[in-house]
Amino acid sequence: MIFLRGISIRLLLALIMLPAVGFSFPANRCFAFGDLGIVVERFEDGGKIDRCSYCRKFVKVGNVHKDAELILGKALKEGLTARDIGYRENSKEGMYLELLVYRFEERKGGNFAVDRPASVGFHMHLMENGTVRRVFVFDESQEALSNNLFNIGKFFRRGAKWLTVEELSRDGINQGLNDLLEEQR
User: Fold this and answer.
1) pLDDT tens by residue, 152-169
2) Residues 100, 140: contact at Cβ < 8 Å?
């Protein structure tokens, strides 16, 4: 068997042939559009139930941290960059993501014990020229594993700890980007 810098020719040929037989590597996702506009807004009127001004879904509005738009905007930019998608800030032209945050509350406590868990609620709208194409809703207050054993996978995926509001929102942003953008390929 001939080795080429530590890799056998058979292995090299097998790796080259994988895409031809329908196998693709998950990390090689590509998305079929260029730069997306991104807009992050807040909806704050604490404690009442209202409707989203874009998709008309009901939301239970809570407290929104003063830096929520900055934190979510940063997470959105990082998520798009990780997916090799460019972005335009504050642009409502062409295709854009409209993120409307209506709850963004920090946990009270530490990594392993809390008095109140982090809570995040936002709608992420994939818009095209002012028209809603798709909507992703993230509305979660982290709960103890003992309250719901069905969350065990999520619990371990998130590091088996109580998350900060920034960590919880980053998880929601990534779920939303996966949901909204993958079908656009």
Assistant:
1) 888 788 888 889 999 999
2) no
The pairing of beta strand 131-141 with beta strand 119-128: antiparallel
| 146-149-150-153 Cα dihedral, nearest 10 degrees | 90
Sorted by where each starts, the structural domains of the chain and their CATH numbers stand as 30-182 (3.30.160)
Q: What are phi and psi of 62, to 5 degrees?
A: -125, -160
Taking only the tens place, the pLDDT of each residue in 10-24 is 544 444 544 444 444
pLDDT at 46: 65
Dihedral sign, Cα of residue 178, residue 181, residue 184, residue 185: negative
Backbone angles phi, psi at 74, to 5 degrees: -65, -45
147 DSSP 8-state letter: G
* Residue (of 149, 134, 164, 143) closest to 57 by Cα position: 134
